[in-house]
Every structure is written in structure tokens, then in C-alpha cells.
Amino acid sequence: MTLEWVGAIPGKRESRRFEGDYILTQRDIVEQREHEDAVSFGGWAMDLHPADGLYSALSPCTQWHSKGVYQIPYRTMYSRNVDNLFLTGRLISVSHVAFGSTRVMATCAHNGQAVGMAAALCLKHGVAPRAVPIGELQRELLKRGQHIPGLALHDPGDLARLASVLTSSCFELEELPPSSDVQPLDVSRAMLLPVAAGRIPALTILVDVERATALDVEVRGSCRPANFTPEITLHRQRIELSPGRAQTVHIASEVSIESPRYLTYCLLKNDDVSVYLSDLRVTGVLSLAQSMNKAVAKGTRQQPPEGSGIDSFEFWLPGRRPGGKNLAGSAEPPLRAFCGANVTNGVARPGLQPNAWVAAADDPAPSICLRWQEPCTIARIELVFDTDFDHPMESVLMGHPERDMPFCVKHYRVRDDTGALLFECTDNHQTRNTVHLPAPAATTELRIEILETHGAPAAIFELRCYA
User: Which end of the chain is more exposed for a tag (fewer CB within 10 A), N or C?
Assistant: First the structure.
């Protein structure tokens, strides 16, 4: 590579912004405030640079994170005093500090999607941006894959809502079988698991122990149910261990939770212990380590200045493949969060629960079926698969262990109630598949047969049907 051009002015990651009916601020981000007109979301750090430039005595960059993603309201995306002017990309109505988070490309793309849809509705209804019907805007965005935290799709036109959902099998997380790989507890490690309401399940982890020691384990939750930051300790336990191979660590508690959510089962740093890993990867199940991304953090714990309005908390991150394998172990009772009803619940990614149907790992012919009492005429099918947003393939300049995400369905068929083949896809690698049938099908049943994935058990986040 050769350097061919240099800008005349150093980029300072700042640009002009316009005022809308609402100005998004630091408190909106840190407190993850909810907005009735939410149409987009962000999650990047508040990435700030000194206003006086390169020679400032201040740190050249500070990056402060919130504990989860935050909503962006539609009111930030049109002008407060120019009736027909939309704002999007970097220009939306945000404060200087909030802009440090909203300015990044993925968030700008979400905002652009929202404004594009709003513009279409302006033309449809003959109204200015301020008068766009928010409910319709949110529904149309969700139908096309936009994620709006806290909102589920309720689409009156979706025929799948009227059907019973049947499956060939449903994954139950009873065991993550051990492989030959072990990993030292040179940092604290954990499993992030979907747990139902009631007494929290016990988890047994397989370990090697070099010398007699006491291992501290914890079960943690988040202050907000849909967050994944393990900040609240629900259960703490110290386990005495003797030297030996393939020993079990049993994490059990009498604690109960009131509603389904993800909990983090933590094994705290101990140089005398190594944990066994599993080769089984499953949609909605993730291993974590108390670590940091050096590009956006200076330590494994965020420690903001006093009075800054920023929260202090630990960073727990998934490892990048080929690392980031799950810890080997078993759950009692098994975790049953992967049922077929998830494909029609209106949420197309993990949140409070996995929100996906996952077939059993040993299912030889995974399938999911929609069944109606009376025949329905189906012309279009919407399918959403798992392309693993936890491990993005950011750039072709970065190394990646695979070309395709292992959780994604590769080969599938669609059949009607007679078994007739309506559609077949042999080499899918995309999140969203819109299937336009060659001719509308009148049927009481629609069956999706999964013939091959890119490695993990078959999984579908969403299945919708339209006349």
C-alpha cells in the first residue's frame, strides 16, 4: 500500500448538526431512555476528542460506554423550523457528547433507513415529516429488518400470526459437551445464558485443577432486563478444589427471578484452574471473558471521572472466532428457550430471550411448520436467519476464520400441505430472505425444511407469510 493523498485539515470527528424537535443528549444514552417515537438505535461509545485540536493538553480521545444500546427518536431526524427538511446521518439533532456515539457508520445507516421510510410515508399520506404516523413508521421499519430496542412487530397482514407452530425438535440446553480444548482462568470467564422465570438453573462446569485452591463463582444479572452487562450479583459461592483433571464445578442457588432474561454465570480469575471448552455453538448462547477491546478501552473496567454522569462497570466481551468457544458443562434443569413459537413473537434477534427457534443438535431432518385451520393463500414468505451480529466481519483487511457465519441456514426447502415443493434455496448466506412464490399457494400448511447450515444447529429468528 502507498499513501496517495492527505487531507488539508486533520479530521477531528466533529461536524455541524441541526436542531430537530428533540435533541438527544448524554443522559438519553447513559440512562437508555425510552421514546414513544423510537425508530433507530445506537450502541457505540461516546467517543470524544478535545475541541481545541491536536495540541490540546487533554487526552486526545475518551470513550465512555453505556450499559446497553439506546433508542434514537424520530424527532431528531427532521428540522424544528424547516417543515420539509429531513436530517440523517451525522446531521441529526444531538448534543456534542451524544454525537460522539451517534456519528458512527452503522448507526448512521439505521438513521438513514428510518428517514428513507419516513420520506416514503410523507409521499403516501401527503404530509410533512412532523406529521408522519409514528406507529406505521415503526411497523414498516420492523417489517424490513430495522431493530428498535424494546419494540416487537405486530403486523395485521402477517398470516403466520394466525397459525399453529410445529417443529421436528427444539434445542434444550442440557449439555455443552467437552472437547479436548482447555482454557486457563487467566481472566474471569463466563457463560451468558437465557433463563426462564423462577428459580435459576444450576450450572456444572468441567475444569482441570493444578493445585489445591478455592474457586469463586457468581451468577450475575443486569440492572435492565434486556441488557447484558453483568453488574448485579445474584449469587456468590466459593468452591474448594483439589488437584485433578476433569473435575466438576457446580454452581447452584436458591435465588429466583420474576421474568425471563439472560444471566451470566461467572468463574472468577484463578491461575490454578483451567476450563474445558465445547465445540458446540448455538444461537442465543455466548461465552464471555472479562477483557477489553484495546481500540475503545483502556482497561477491563470503565472508571469515569467523578460527576461525569457516566456509569462505572466491568467489560465482559465475547471472544472472536476461532476463539470464543462455549464453556463445557451442563444445566439442570435444561434451558428451554428455543421453541418454535419464537419465530412469530415479532423480535428477530436475542433480547430478553434468544427469540429464535433452534433445532436439536442431533435432529437429522430439522423442520418448522405453520398450520392453519382453514386454507390460506400465500404469495410471499419472509425468513430471518442468524448471521451472528456478535461477531461482525468488519473489513476484508481483518482476518476471519470463515467466509460464512456458522449459525446461518445454508440450504432449505419450502413445502405446502401436500408435500409439494414451493421453493428451494441451496446456498444462502444472508440474514433476510424474501421468497416470492412463482404462483400464490392455497394451503393449510407451510413447512420449512432445513437441509444444511454453515456449521451450527438449524435456527430461524422470524417466519412471516403474506397473501
Answer: N
Helix axes 134-143, 105-125, angle to 10 degrees: 120
What pLDDT shows up at residue 9?
A: 61
Q: How far is CA 144 from CA 75, 88, 434, 462, in A?
A: 21, 19, 10, 12
Mean pLDDT in residue range 199-208: 97
Query: How do strand 46-48 and strand 164-167 relate by DSSP bridges?
Result: unpaired
**Contact indicator for 231, 251 with CB cutoff of 8 Å:** no
Q: Name the grid cell of 381.
A: 414468505
What phi and psi, each to the nearest 5 degrees, are found at residue 117?
-70, -40
- CA dist., res. 45 & res. 58, Å (int): 18
Strands (DSSP E) contained in 74-197 are 164-167, 173-176, 182-185, 189-195
> In the numeric block, which cell numbers belong to residue 420?
409439494
| pLDDT single digits (tens) 17-52 | 999 999 999 999 999 999 999 999 999 999 988 777
Break the chain down into helix, strand, coil percent, rounded to 5: 15, 40, 50
Predicted confidence at residue 13, as pLDDT, reads 73
DSSP strand pairing (316-317 vs 421-425): unpaired
Model confidence pLDDT, tens digit, residues 152-172 = 999 999 999 999 999 999 999
Q: What CATH class does 159-170+338-466 carry?
A: mainly beta
Distance CA 23, CA 98 (A): 9
Tell me which residue of 349, 367, 389, 357 sits closest to 460, measured CA to CA: 357
Instruction: Give the tens place of pLDDT for each residue, 355-396.
Output: 999 999 999 999 999 999 999 999 999 999 999 988 877 776
What residue has cell string 447452584?
A: 252
Tens digits of per-residue pLDDT, 310-321? 999 999 999 988
The pLDDT value recorded for residue 345 is 97
255 Cβ neighbours under 8 A, 6+ residues apart: 199, 200, 219, 234, 235
Nearest partner of 25 among 78, 72, 65, judged by Cα: 72
Residue 381 near residue 428 (C-beta atoms within 8 A): no
Query: Residue type for 302, please?
Result: Q
Residue among 37, 43, 33, 45 nearest 20 (CA) = 37
- By DSSP bridging, strand 232-241 and strand 213-221 are antiparallel
Do residues 455 and 436 lie in contact, with contact meaning Cβ atoms separated by under 8 Å? no
Q: Is the pLDDT of residue 10 over 70?
A: no
Q: Max CA-CA distance within the chain?
A: 75
Strand partners, 63: 47
**Mean pLDDT score of the chain, rounded to an integer?**
94
